[in-house]
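2 proteins. here.
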Amino acid sequence: VLARNDAAFEHHGTFPDLIELFNEGGEPVDLAGFRLTNDPMDPDSFAFPSGVILGGQQHLLLSANAPDGTPGFHVGFTLSQNGDTLYLMDRAAHGNVVLDSVPFGLQLADLSLGRFGGSGAWLLCQPTPGEANVLRELGTRAGLRLNEWLASGTLPFAEDFLEIYNPDPEPVALGGICLSDCPIGAPSRHAIAPLSFIAGNGHAVFLADGDPDAGANHLSFRLAAGGGELSMKAPDLSPMDQVWYAAQLP
């Protein structure tokens, strides 16, 4: 899965999001009628036509965009770099049965998610369309810091936000890290979505609007303009960084 294809893979002059299927078995599979969607309420977003056979140990690449006149399969929807879920559905005649899925959080430009090993673990990859997945080296979480926040936003930055900085030159996994405005009473108020990443020497911005259903870059709490606390803790709730602040200016 490649949800932010800036320059990693060119498809006839375009750079669509990418979905790759792999048949790990030895026998060919008839894909006719199988469906792909990022919305479980719309399972019929894309259905394979008749005559599509995926051979054993073979890959099939699809463009996650609207049909644009270029060759190949176009599923009719894009993938959000701020978090999404991709579903592989059984044929409609068998009901809306999910055969496979991958939920993911914040994605990085030109880096993909790939499946590995018997456990089926999803890990950050260097894109290799049509070939075996290649792991992307990750840095350490130890240097992550709360870098900037806005608790009384006005235009042009109307939304309050909280920003993390990664000083490591390599990307770092953010999934499971907990952010909170109440470090003592509710240290795990917001857990960053699994399969979320921050770029090397980069920033990750979370909108503090109390609406986590809006995407993996939205926090489940707001920032108090009159003063408060912010904390970042590891998944085991060991401290990573914390800040106290007084009343903020607009």
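next one coming up
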Amino acid sequence: HIMVVENNNIEIKKFWDIDVNSVNLDMTEEEAIEGLDKHLNRAIDIRLRGDLTIGSFLSGGIDSSLITALASRKLKLEHPMESYTGCSELVGEFDSQFAKQVCEEYPVNYNEVDIQMPEVISSLLRSIWVLDEPLADSATISSYLVAKRGKEDVGVLLSGLGADELFAGLGRNVRGS
């Protein structure tokens, strides 16, 4: 839902809804995989349009690894695609070990963004301003810092943000959180 406030009037409107009646629950596993592949490739193709250089957030999770792999194969660049992984004592080594594996398998350069507490503190207000909405997730600060670093090299950073939920998510204890 969205809330529209205009001339002292408040109106709440439905913004989006899933049509559960259009979901084919009788499809086979093969059909589901083919459909997912089709939709993922279409989504990547749409985001690769344009003339800006492309890179990716690469956490090493299923979502960002899949997006990075698909995009790197489709781009067919003279040089490998750039990827950016936040890493430090604050976020641990979990992300970097899997991100490095993706970069070894596909034409992708691994760029580790070292996130340190002084930079987190100094970027806190700016990262909140960039979000333009309240969000109780400390990962937004490291994402902001990774994006800031990526912007030095590329015009667009692809992200799998939110796709963990589609792929059954990461357990809360995976990263010790």
